[in-house]
Amino acid sequence: MSPRPLIAVPARFAASTSALRYAAEVNARALIEAVWRAGGEPVSLHPHAPGGVADPAEVRERLARFDGLLLPGGGDLAPHRYGCADVHEAVYDVDDEQDAFDLALARAAIDGRVPTLAICRGLQVVNTVLGGTLHQDMGGPEHEHRHLRHPVALTPDSALARATGGAAVAEASCYHHQHVDRPGEGLTVTARAADGTVEALELAGDAGWLTAVQWHPEDTAQQDPVQQSIFHALAREAAGS
């Protein structure tokens, strides 16, 4: 039996967890299980960026042992990371070390053509590292996509559409109050919500396999084959098949 491809998943800092008693580094169990069901071996990465500065060479070296990368959801990026001096009152859970590490990891994956799936915050990290911008808030509770499931239209023949077996529409489970303003260099929009919100991006041309979704496919992957197929695509690309 072939070994499972190693999928790096940067951990998220948690102030406390009841079982561990102290501050922790975590990832959502649903996310890890979706990677496992897809045939991947998920491996948590410690976000190391002292003082909010990551060492690009160190990050590249750490990523080099992996076959693929999954950039998960989490708190908001600091607005200065995408060129905004002002901070909206809705911005939450900013962590400079987490930001610096995720951005360096995304840069290393893009430069090294490491197959990458980016989810929610992960999409925003990819967009930011490629020079794109974000709307800091979608306009309050009546407009944000929190605790929301809605259909998103997929661009035909995109990597995302191919990953989902040619699906034209996917039922997305969303939890975000920010979204893409200007896509980063080389990124193509491959899914939108009915209100026009960018729901997916991918690298154009032959720049390597990078698919980013604004929603959380892990929320419903166990019951929805379309969502689980996104993780299968990552595992296939990571395995080189």
Task: Please summarize the sheet with the most strands.
Answer: 9 strands, mixed
Tell me which CATH architecture applies here.
Answer: 3-Layer(aba) Sandwich
- Please state roughly what percent of the residues sit in beta strands, choosing from under 5%, 5-15%, 15-25%, 25-35%, 35-45% or over 45%: 25-35%
Low-confidence stretches: none
Strand runs, count: 13
Fourth-tier CATH superfamily name: Class I glutamine amidotransferase (GATase) domain
- Widest beta sheet: strand line-up: 4-1-5-6-13-12-11-8-9
Describe this structure in words.
The protein contains six helices and 13 strands. The protein has 241 residues and is of the alpha/beta class. It has a single domain, classed as Rossmann fold. The strands form three sheets. Strands 4-1-5-6-13-12-11-8-9 form a nine-stranded mixed β-sheet, sandwiched between helices. It has a two-stranded antiparallel ribbon with strand order 2-3. A two-stranded antiparallel sheet has the order 7-10. Helix 2 packs across helix 3. The longest helix is centred in the middle third of the chain and has 17 residues.
